[in-house]
């Protein structure tokens, strides 16, 4: 069984996609935006977070790291392995009707489009981090949401997702991040050791 999205919603989605991917492009964004969606761009941040947590929060920090990784695993499984096969939405860069319009600046990929796993994963991690760290890191909500939103925007800009893919991925990821953060808080709180 394949689920389909409502027609009127898809029409709006295509209009917004046209602006973000085709109309509002320029050479500067073409050079910068692909890095926002690249996993290796953010690898130092992931490493910093894991080391920071282990160094400052010891055993609780280790548990935080395990929850952080579990949050990623849940988000990725939900988006890539359950929902994408259910909806089977074609990516803009693989859509025959859009092939003459789409501004593609990265390798397209052969997987399905809805929901965006990048958006799901980054919002899940961002929301989990924001909830669990909000009492010890100033502006964590702004930082986490800006990070996840920039990755999501990049997915549309480079031509591999529609806006609805990243919006729904962001909502799914946020829900997963809330759940895992609440589970973490059932037993642990981040308090500096020593």
- Write down how many β-strands occur, each being a DSSP E stretch of 2 or more residues: 0
Considering DSSP H and I runs of 4 or more, what fraction of the residues is helical? over 70%
What is the overall shape? globular
Helix/strand class: mainly alpha
Strand content: under 5%
Mean pLDDT: 92
Measured between the Cα atoms of the first and last residue, the distance is 55 Å
Radius of gyration: 18 Å
Low-pLDDT segments, ≥5 res:
none
Number of helices: 6
Major beta sheet summary: none
Order of helices and strands: HHHHHH
Give the secondary structure arrangement, pairings included.
Layout: H1 7-23, H2 27-36, H3 39-87, H4 117-133, H5 140-157, H6 163-187
Helix pairs in contact: 2-5, 3-4, 3-6, 4-5, 4-6, 5-6
Question: How would you characterize this protein structure?
Answer:
This protein has 6 helices and no strands. With 194 residues, it is mainly alpha-helical. The chain is globular. The termini are far apart. The model has no long low-confidence stretch (mean pLDDT 92).
Task: For the structure shown, list the relevant keywords.
globular; 0% strand; 6 helices; mainly alpha; 194 residues
């Amino acid at each position: 069984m394949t689920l389909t999205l409502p027609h009127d919603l898809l029409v709006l989605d295509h209009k917004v996609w046209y602006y973000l991917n085709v109309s509002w492009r320029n050479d500067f964004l073409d050079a910068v935006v692909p890095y926002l969606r690249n996993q290796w761009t953010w690898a130092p941040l992931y490493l910093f977070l894991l080391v920071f947590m282990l160094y400052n929060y010891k055993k609780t920090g280790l548990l935080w790291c395990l929850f952080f990784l579990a949050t990623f695993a849940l988000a990725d499984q939900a988006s890539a392995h359950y929902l994408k096969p259910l909806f089977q939405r074609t990516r803009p860069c693989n859509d025959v009707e859009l092939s003459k319009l789409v501004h593609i600046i990265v390798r397209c990929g052969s997987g399905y489009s809805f929901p965006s796993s990048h958006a799901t994963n980054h919002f899940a991690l961002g929301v989990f981090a924001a909830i669990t760290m909000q009492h010890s890191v100033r502006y964590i909500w702004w930082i986490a949401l800006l990070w996840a939103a920039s990755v999501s925007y990049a997915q549309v800009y480079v031509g591999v997702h529609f806006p609805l893919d990243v919006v729904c991925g962001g909502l799914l990821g946020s829900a997963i991040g809330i759940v895992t953060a609440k589970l973490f808080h059932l037993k642990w709180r981040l308090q500096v050791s020593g």
